[in-house]
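User: Fold this; C-alpha cells only.

Assistant: Input:
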Amino acid sequence: MEYIDGSRGAKDAREGPDRGRTASPPRNVMLSRSVIIRRLWAVGGVVAVLQSTAYAGGLQSAASREAEARDALYNLDFDAAEAEFQALTGQEPDNPRYWNLLASSIWLRIVFEQEKMNLDAYSDSASTRDDADDLVTPEREDRLRGVLARAIAAAEAILEADPEDREALYALGIAHGSLASFEATVKRAYFDANSAARSAREHHMRLLEIDPSYNDARITIGAYDYTVGALPLVLRALIGLFGIRGDKEAGIEQLEYAAELGARGAVNAKVVLIVVYNREEQFEKALALLEELHAAYPRNFLFELEQASVYRRMEAWDRAVAVYDSVLAKVRSGGDGYDRLEPEAVLYRKAETHVDGMDNAAALETFRELLASPETTEALEARARLWMGKIHDSAGERPLAVAEYERVLALDAPDDVRDEAGRYVRRPFQD
C-alpha cells in the first residue's frame, strides 16, 4: 500500500512544576473541526504509546531482552519487538509493564500502516487519509483492546493491594493513554478518547503527588494539557462546561521538564515535543530534536523524513529536497533500515516540495522519474499526473494539461483525485 506521507511501510509489510517561478497550485490546508480534534487528541495519545516503551527499565529480570525489543520498536522493527514483548508477557503475566509494551508494538504498527506515524501527520498542514480506520481489521482491534485490558487489570490488581504502588500507577496511566490514542485516531470516538485521556492524566497526577520526582509521569500530563489548551477557543469554552481544561504553556513546560529530567521517558517526551514545536512554529527546536533522535535510532527513517517536512514548513525548499535526496540515496543503496522504505512515495514528496517552491520544471522532472518506476501504484500515479496537469495549466499549456487529466481518469484513482481531474478536463485549473 502506498503512503502519501513519504513512506510506504515495510516491503513485507530536576523536579518541575506540579501544575496541571509560476505560482504553485494552492493547497487547501483548512481542516474540518473533527480533523483538528482528532489530530490534537493524537498528540496526547501517541505519547502514551511511546511512553510505554520507556517503562521497561525498572527491574533486572529480562532487562536485556526488554532493551533489545525497545530498540527494535524505536527502529520500526515491529515483528521483532512484538514477538519479544509477547514472550515477556508469558514469562510474567501479572506484570502490567509487559502488557503495555506489547500493546505499544501492536499500536505503533497500526499507526505506521495507517500512514499516521509520520510526525507530520499530527500537524494542521498534514495531508492524512480520513479513511485510515478502514485499514484496521477487527481482529487487530480486538487484539489491541484485549492486551490493554490485561495491562489495566494487572495494574489494578497491584493497586488494590497497595494503592500507592508507583509503577502500577504509571502503568495504569499508560494503558489508558494508549486507549485514548486509539479511540481518537482510529475510531474517532472523541468522548471515549477524552475519558481515557483524563483517566491517564489523573493516575499520573496521583503518582506525582506520591513522588514528585517521577518526572516521566509529566509526559502524559503535559500532552493532555497542551492538547486541550491548543483547541480553538470556542471548543475550549464548550468542553470547559464539562470540566475539561488545559493550558498550552503549562503543557509544554511539563514536556520540557520530562525531556530534560525524565529517567526513562526522555526520548518519548522529545518525540511529543517535536509535534508541539511544529505546531507552535518553533522549527529550529524541532529540527534539533529530530537530529538527536535520528542519531540515536538511525534505522528509523521517519525521523529523517520529518526533517524534510519541517524544512517545508519553514519554506526552506532546497534543504527539504536535500533531505529527500539523502533518504533516496539510502533506500537505493539498501541502507540499514531504509531497505524497508519504497522510493516512489519519497519521490512524490520531493516533487511536491518543488511545486511548493515554485520550481515547476524540477517538479515535472521528479514526477516523471516517479512515473518511470514500475513499482508506482496507480493511486500514486494518479496523484502525480493530477499535479502535472495543474502545472501545465498554470503555464498555459492546456493540451498537455488535459492529456494528464484524462490519464488520471483512465486509472484506478482515489475518488477525490478522479473528481478533481474531471473538473479540470471541463475547466482549466486556475492558480
